[in-house]
Every structure is written in structure tokens, then in C-alpha cells.
């Protein structure tokens, strides 16, 4: 099959450190190439892939000094869309897999091959609902069933869970003595709540997270004063090796999310290491974490989290790893997308 994958331009593919969507696209691309398919990856020029790379910008937007301003960064995305459309018109592909969402969908009619769009973000954003609502018959893929709930009138071709490269995560059957927090330093990820939970439970918390420009003020004012380097340690933004080390040696991953997380790769990455996840009962959490078996899915309450921390030693860490092997590997994800590609091509 001849497939074009369109990735975001914010980060390279795969991301050097933090970047969920870019990591997913990389895993799909490498798996497809490994299966013998012809694949073109439209992404930033500093991406590394076995697919045929079509550079949209010389390097990831985030690396450009002039893109610190969010208005400039958003403008660059529209310039990127124009370049993507031009490049797609040149390619002889059977299907286009869009990972940049609503911005590209209005141009699907200008491209000969059918396009399918994976929705990586929440569906409760009004302006995005406005755009998606204008194209309800376009084939969409959800990354969890719960993601559909705020706007379920779209034409969903299926749900495909995100998948990870299990070889990057070492299983550790012996719990460590600290809790971990991984993700972004943004209010919806719950870093402040994680610190409160760890302190109340009397357990050390090690945090690794990206601090983006939009979250800098929040981090400086709300989080940084709570980091003491002893009971609360901040590692900054980590790459694959640092992520593996953090999760592999943790007692549990704290995920006191404050929003409807559409998926949450960090939860599957923790479980791949054998590390249970303690997560708020919101969004996709109950689909990813099997309550009582691979962690705990609890109410958005500090005391409930603390109680779960005290019980987490009873979780079978081998069950955590097996759940990821069965449901969230990059191979299983890619097989799911191949089924969707066939469906979309045949319908076209």
C-alpha cells in the first residue's frame, strides 16, 4: 500500500523529548515500512525516519527563535498547511493519514487520494467543533471511545488506541520508593495536585515535564516554589532514556489529570515498565488503566489518591506490562490503521 502520513510541525518525528502525536506518527511510519508498505512522511526536515521524508519546514517550529510568540507559531502552521497540500498533490498514494487535525480537513477535496484524520485532541473545543461540524462525513479515527463523547456526530471509521515501542521500556518487577509524574507542566495535567498527593502520602515525588511557552507563567508561579530538590524533584524535560529510567524505578505514576485526556501515552509507558498508574476517573483513563489490576482509577479527590498510593504495592507489575503488550503496542496500533485504510480506500 502507498501511504502518506502528515505529522505536526511543532516537533521532529520522533520527538527528541516530549511530543505525543509525533511519537505516534513515528511508530506508525516505522511499522508500516517494516511491513513492506511505501510510506511518505510529511514532517519537519529534522525528522528521522525509514519512510520517504518530505520536509515541510527545515526544522521543527519549536526550535525557531521567532516562533516563541504563539501568534507567529500559529501563522507558521497555516503556511505549513499550504506546503502540505502542494506536496500531497505530487504524490501517487492510495491514502493520506492526517495527524494535524482540523486545519487540513477543508483541503481534502483538493487531494486525489482519500484522507483519514486521527483526532489527537479533545473534542469539546467550540471552534474545532465548528470546523469538524462542517465536514461531518470526513472519515475520522478516535484514539479512545471516550474521546467521541463531547461530539459524537462525526463519521468515525473506528477507534485505534495509540501504541508504543515496547523495546524502549524495561520491565522492572520491583517497586521503587518514589512516585513519578510525567508530561507537561500545565494545569490540566495536575502537577500541583501530584505534589500535594505525594506530600500527604509522605512519599518522594520525581517529576519530568516539558514547560512550554504558554505554561511558563503557571510553572514559575504555581509549581517552582514547591520544588525543593529533596521531597519534590524536577528533572526537566527528558528523552526516551530518561523517561524509561524515571518510570522503571517508580513505585507508581501519579496522573491527577484535570481534563478529559483523550488518551495519555505516559500511562501506557509507565505500565510497560511494570509501574502501576493512579489516575483521575476522567476521559480515557478507565480504558487504559484497569482499576485494581494495573493501577487505580479514582475520583478527583486528594484523599482518594493518597489511599491509592498506600494500596499500590498490591498491584501485580507483570499484569501492567501484559496489558500494554496486548492492547497498546505499536504493532497492534498499525494493524488497526491498516484496517481503516482499507475501509476508507474501498469506500472511495
Report on the structure:
The protein is globular. It is built from eleven helices and 13 strands. The strands form two sheets. A seven-stranded parallel beta sheet has the order 3-2-1-4-5-6-7, with helices on both faces. The chain has a six-stranded parallel beta sheet with strand order 10-9-8-11-12-13, sandwiched between helices. Helix 1 packs across helix 11. The longest helix is centred in the N-terminal third of the chain and has 21 residues. It starts with a strand and ends with a helix. The mean pLDDT is 95. 36% of the residues lie in helices and 17% in strands. With 348 residues, the chain is α/β, with parallel strands linked by helices.
Can you tag this structure with a few keywords?
6-stranded parallel sheet; 13 strands; alpha/beta; 7-stranded parallel sheet; 348 residues
Topology:
Elements (H helix, E strand, L loop, with lengths): L1 E5 L13 H15 L3 E6 L8 E4 L14 H21 L4 E4 L16 E5 L6 H9 L5 E3 L13 E4 L18 E7 L6 H11 L2 E7 L5 H8 L8 E3 L5 H9 L3 E4 L9 H8 L4 E4 L4 H4 L6 E4 L3 H10 L5 H11 L2 H18 L1
Parallel strand pairs: 1-2, 1-4, 2-3, 4-5, 5-6, 6-7, 8-9, 8-11, 9-10, 11-12, 12-13
Amino acid at each position: 500500500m502507498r501511504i502518506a502520513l502528515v505529522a505536526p510541525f511543532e516537533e521532529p518525528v520522533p520527538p527528541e523529548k516530549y511530543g505525543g502525536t509525533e511519537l505516534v506518527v513515528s511508530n506508525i511510519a516505522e511499522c508500516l515500512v517494516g511491513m513492506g508498505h511505501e510510506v511518505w512522511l510529511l514532517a519537519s526536515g529534522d525528522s528521522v525516519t525509514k519512510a520517504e521524508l518530505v520536509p515541510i519546514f527545515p526544522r521543527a517550529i519549536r526550535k525557531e527563535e521567532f516562533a516563541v510568540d504563539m501568534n507567529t507559531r500559529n501563522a507558521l502552521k497555516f503556511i505549513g498547511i499550504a506546503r502540505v497540500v502542494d506536496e500531497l498533490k505530487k504524490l501517487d498514494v492510495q491514502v493520506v493519514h492526517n495527524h494535524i487535525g482540523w486545519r487540513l480537513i477543508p483541503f481534502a477535496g483538493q487531494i486525489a487520494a482519500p484522507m483519514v484524520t486521527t483526532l489527537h485532541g479533545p473534542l469539546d473545543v467550540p471552534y474545532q467543533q465548528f470546523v469538524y461540524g462542517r465536514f461531518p462525513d470526513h472519515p475520522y479515527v478516535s484514539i479512545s471511545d471516550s474521546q467521541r463523547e463531547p461530539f459524537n456526530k462525526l463519521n468515525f471509521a473506528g477507534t485505534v488506541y495509540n501504541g508504543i515501542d515496547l523495546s524502549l521500556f524495561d520491565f522492572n518487577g520491583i517497586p521503587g520508593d518514589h512516585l513519578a509524574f510525567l508530561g507537561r507542566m500545565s494545569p490540566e495535567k495536575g502537577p500541583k495536585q501530584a505534589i500535594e498527593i505525594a506530600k500527604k502520602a509522605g512519599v518522594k515525588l520525581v517529576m519530568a515535564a516539558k514547560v512550554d511557552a504558554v505554561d511558563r507563567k503557571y510553572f514559575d508561579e504555581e509549581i517552582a516554589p514547591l520544588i525543593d530538590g529533596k521531597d519534590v524533584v524536577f528533572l526537566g524535560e527528558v528523552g526516551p532514556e530518561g523517561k524509561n529510567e524515571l518510570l522503571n524505578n517508580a513505585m507508581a505514576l501519579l496522573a491527577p489529570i484535570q481534563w478529559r485526556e483523550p488518551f495519555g501515552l505516559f500511562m501506557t509507558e509507565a505500565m510497560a515498565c511494570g509501574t502501576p498508574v493512579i489516575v483521575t476517573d476522567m476521559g480515557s483513563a478507565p480504558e487504559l488503566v484497569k482499576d485494581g489490576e494495573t493501577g487505580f482509577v479514582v475520583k478527583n479527590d486528594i484523599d482518594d489518591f493518597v489511599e491509592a498510593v498506600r494500596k499500590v504495592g498490591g498491584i501485580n507489575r507483570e499484569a501492567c506490562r501484559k496489558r500494554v503488550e496486548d492492547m497498546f503496542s505499536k504493532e497492534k496500533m498499525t494493524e488497526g490503521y491498516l484496517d481503516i485504510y482499507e475501509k476508507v480506500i474501498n469506500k472511495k
